[in-house]
Write a structure and sequence with these properties.
Strands 3, 4, 5, 6, 7, 8, 9, 10 and 11 form a nine-stranded mixed β-sheet that branches. The protein has a two-stranded antiparallel ribbon with strand order 1-2. The chain has a single domain, classed as Vaccinia Virus protein VP39 (Rossmann fold, 3-Layer(aba) Sandwich). By secondary structure, it is an alpha/beta fold. The chain is built from nine helices and eleven strands. The termini are far apart. β1 and β2 form a beta hairpin.
Length: 261
């Protein structure tokens, strides 16, 4: 059999060089704006424990650690290949200042009960849990890249199992944050159920007059507050430009948090 083509790796700078990420090129999911918006949902001043579920190469979790100097971040990923990339990122000299505050757990987010605890995800540990679950519907055309398909393919009950795990490993009053497609709003609300309340939903639009492409969701474990639909977040002010708005650029580069109302 012919030898497999070597995987090309890139080292990409985020937050204007405050941290770097090792990623495969042409394989798997490439981190970008979604991960940075997700990371911006963590708003804290003191010591905070954060779990990034389905972390991939670790972009969102590392972005939290880079912005919040007292954040202790656990990257949770089931793919041995992707968690190996996260380990490579932590070994970079450019990430030395944050690497000591970041740990890796190779585990399936859908594990429950004793199996989850045995995998390294104990009950009532984290103050924040962030996630960017697979978002492609089963009817969408699938990519031939198996690693990318695993990162993108949604399965039945996915939100319920991921949010169940988030609720189990989070302290009472902790915050759940996620980014997803707008079509998943109903499933997310159902999955939060009585575990989480005080949901805040922000639709993300490319430009005025266009349809939303993402939603940002935050919720509080054990809260009984009602759902709040927030003002839309517009990525671009100028309909003719691809330049981000000043606020979105600050979120993307780790200069601001997207705070709850």
């Amino acid at each position: 059999m012919p030898a497999a083509d070597p995987v090309i790796e890139t080292v990409d700078a985020f937050h204007r060089g405050r941290f770097h990420l090792v990623q495969p090129k042409g394989r798997g999911h490439r981190a970008g704006m979604d991960a940075m918006l997700l990371a911006s949902l963590v708003d804290a001043t003191g010591r905070v424990r954060v779990a990034d579920l389905g972390a991939g190469a670790g972009a969102a979790g590392l972005a939290v650690a880079a912005r919040l100097e007292k954040a202790e971040v656990t990257l949770v990923e089931r793919s041995p290949e992707m968690i190996a990339y996260a380990a490579k990122s932590l070994a970079l000299e450019e990430n030395a200042a944050l690497a000591r505050r970041v740990s890796l757990v190779e585990a399936d987010v859908t594990l429950a009960g004793r199996a989850r605890v045995a995998a390294g995800l104990a009950d009532d540990v984290f103050d924040h849990v962030i996630m960017n679950p697979p978002f492609n519907d089963a009817g969408d055309r699938r990519t031939p890249d198996a690693l990318k398909a695993e990162a993108h393919a949604m399965t039945e009950g996915l939100f319920d199992s991921w949010i169940r795990t988030a609720g189990a490993i989070m302290v009472p009053g902790g915050q759940l944050s996620l980014i997803a497609r707008p079509q998943s709003i109903g499933e997310i609300i159902d999955a939060c159920g009585r575990r989480f309340g005080g949901l805040e939903l922000t639709p993300v639009y490319p430009r005025a007059g266009e349809n939303a492409v993402r939603i940002l969701v935050t919720a509080i474990k054990g809260s009984r507050a009602r759902l709040n639909l927030r003002s839309p977040l517009l990525m671009h002010d100028d309909p003719e430009s691809h330049k981000f708005s000043a606020f979105v650029d600050d979120l993307n580069n780790g200069r601001l948090a997207y705070r709850r109302k």
